[in-house]
Specification:
Largest sheet: 6 strands, antiparallel
Strand order of the largest sheet: 4-5-3-2-1-6
Number of domains: 1
Strand content: 5-15%
Distance between the termini: 61 Å
Structural class: alpha+beta
CATH topology: HIT family, subunit A
CATH architecture: 2-Layer Sandwich
């Protein structure tokens, strides 16, 4: 009897689904008897354990926050990691309690950015055994990006400007620094240009941004070493750190470091 492919699910008709046209369901591979090791398991190196603090935008005693290596189509994409090599179900009570505090704190910091409506928090864990949690910011007013497919849209939309991206990273790092730990990034300095060089500068920026752009899906796909290639943004040692927003709750200072 010929195989009848399953019907395309209803969510392909949702406004948030990023594709249109004729679609068909892929053939499902046979299950494997033994799953491959993730990064940090067996003889596979743990990229999180080997990454220095300079590869992060904020570091604390037990937690670190990492960014993509370039802007994406979303206002902000960040990854919260434990310092200890543990998976989610292996966190001791102290880290499990601090995870709640850090999740709320980082969500608030990202949501405070201009142009952010909501923050999606995701955990996959199929690529690395070192605990990490994804934070994806949905742009304000972009109702089509609500829900399940935000990570897909982040790989489709044109990336935000590098200047805005670095400013956002510095603001989040400074916010977290208000509660302890150490911000590791500052916003870029203004690059003053002579009027005669403006057009050349813009042309170079356009050429560069056409070929750059981080991909949430590549890094979160968790099937290759894409996440291992996510260094922190370059820091600007000549620029003072941006102050965190003044309206942070005083009670929130008590928590994870």
């Amino acid at each position: 009897m010929p195989h009848t492919p399953p019907a395309v699910p209803d969510f392909t008709q949702w406004p948030s689904f990023p594709f249109e046209g004729d679609l068909r369901v892929k053939q499902l591979d046979d299950p494997v008897p033994v799953e491959p090791s993730r990064r940090g398991e067996g003889d596979r190196e743990c990229t999180a354990c080997s990454a220095p603090d300079e590869a992060y935008i904020w570091v604390g005693e037990r937690w670190r926050v990492r960014a993509m290596d370039r802007p994406t189509g979303l206002p902000m994409v960040l990854i919260l990691e434990s310092r200890s090599h543990l998976d989610l179900g292996d966190l001791p009570n102290l880290l499990a309690a601090e995870l709640g505090v850090m999740t709320v704190r980082l969500e608030r910091a990202i949501r405070s950015l201009d142009g952010v409506a909501r923050v999606h928090v995701n955990r996959w864990g199929d690529g690395s055994s070192h605990f990490h949690l994804w934070f994806l910011a949905r742009p304000y007013g972009r109702l089509q990006l609500r829900g399940t497919f935000l990570s897909l849209w982040g790989s489709i939309l044109p990336p935000i400007s590098e200047e805005q991206w670095r400013e956002n990273l510095a603001l989040v790092a400074a916010w977290l620094g208000e509660f302890g730990g150490r911000p590791m990034t500052e916003p870029s300095r203004i690059q003053w240009q002579a009027p005669a060089s403006f057009s050349d500068s813009f042309r170079v920026e356009e050429e560069r941004t056409e070929t750059e752009g981080g991909s949430v899906i590549e890094a979160a796909d968790e099937t290759d070493d894409a996440a291992a290639r996510i260094p922190a943004p370059r820091t600007d040692p000549d620029r003072p750190a941006t102050a965190a927003p003044a309206h942070v709750d005083e009670a929130d200072r008590l928590g994870a470091a």
